[in-house]
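Colleagues,

For the teaching module next term, I've prepared a clean inverse folding example: a structure given as tokens, and then the sequence designed for it. I'd like students to try predicting residues themselves before seeing the answer, so please don't circulate the second half yet.
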């Protein structure tokens, strides 16, 4: 039982480490894009609005697929 718990904790730690490494890599690769978005207030708010709309579309699509409206 203890070994199973330790194995699960190790897997969770490994997944978290890989996710963190991917986020750092993406931030370093996308640094010029992030700087461009941050350079203009209208561009930044446009990106925020776009992410909000896309997130809302995904949430609503998921609700429709489950049969709940």
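(Answer key — instructors only)
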């Amino acid at each position: 039982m203890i070994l199973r718990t330790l194995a699960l904790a190790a897997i969770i730690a490994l997944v978290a480490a890989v996710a963190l490494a991917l986020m750092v890599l993406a931030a370093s690769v996308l640094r010029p894009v992030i700087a461009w978005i941050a350079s203009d207030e209208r561009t930044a708010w446009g990106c925020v609005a776009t992410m909000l709309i896309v997130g809302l579309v995904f949430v609503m699509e998921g609700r429709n697929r489950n049969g709940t409206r």
